[in-house]
Amino acid sequence: YALGHFAVGSMEVFLPQILTRLQETATNEVASSKHTYLLLSSVKEVVRTHQLNGIDLAPSLPLMLPQLFLFLSSKEDGIRSMVAECLGSMICIQPLTVLPKLQELTQTHTTKEVGNNEEQPLQREEDARACWTIATAVKFAISKHSSVSELKGYMPSFLVLLRDGGNDLTTEKDIDLKEREVSVRNAALLMVYAAVHHQPLLLADLMTEHVLPFLYKLALLKLPRVVDLGPFKQRVDDALPLRKASLSIFAASLEKCPSSIDIPALMPILATSLSDKDEDVQLHAHRIVLFLCSKYPKCLVLPGVVESFCDPLEKRMTITSKEKNMTGTELERLNEWIKSALRVMISLNKVEGVRSCKRFAKFHDTIKSHTKFQSMLGALEEEH
């Protein structure tokens, strides 16, 4: 922090020394990652101070960018995050200088042809880490309200990261590589979420072609595997962060730029998400349905929509044998989960035309007459 501020006061003295040390650590395999991180922190303070005070950084960018790009594929997440933050701030200051270089790097790391040899997984891992850094840098720039007019033209190039060069995650056998490529897609989704949330005009004309086709797939993607932990085995789903991020984008889009979303096409995804085994995914889906009830109720009376919601909602309200033994915090979370499903049921019941669906009417009346839900329903009815 202090070194960065010293450098701002005397760029010609301190900045070359910082950048020289960065270059040395990049070529020295035994260099401390902590030392590299601190040097990058100094660079971040230089960029941040220039940005906050409106000082021209253009003369120093040709010196700084090559050194930052040396760490684009660093194995250390913290180092890549720091590089991404520096690049994000630079985009805000000098977009026409930084964006073309990031665009070129994106093309390099997503279209590179690698021979069929033992080095291919290593190269693909490096490409994945670089793509993650680029997507995160753009996300930082968007969240810091970079110029929409200057960034918009480059967004199609960065949205390519949603498919990460077209690699199929469902057939990838290398676990480490799969995790890296999942992280790229997740970073790209977070970039899209930042755009929708902070600057929806960035994607207003790009959602249909460049975002939604991949969003529909990623919202339903599952990558289950079994992790051997010695005494026992645990099932994990590597695609879980992607499903969560996708639903967050749908929710933000419905609020910020609803015209960009094909709501009828979203309904099957919501039905699947309502039956997801993960609590957070279900709760995301619950919130979206509640929003639709209040803002776009007509979409819920389309043929087959409400019927598709009934089974997953009813299943959530059915206590499993494992859940019967829950106590303390686990039991509280379970009750909140059930309350969320009940809240959706109550809201759907108030939408005009939904009661004409016999499946929903039967489901609603059965749940409402069940004694174990009476206290919850009473409290929720008061909310409405």
UniProtKB/TrEMBL annotation:
Keyword Repeat: yes
One of the Pfam families matching this protein, by short name: TIP120
Lineage top rank: taxon: Eukaryota
GO biological process: SCF complex assembly
Domain TATA-binding protein interacting (TIP20) positions: 207-368
Keywords associated with the record: Repeat, Ubl conjugation pathway
Family: Belongs to the CAND family.
PANTHER family: TIP120
Protein name: TATA-binding protein interacting (TIP20) domain-containing protein
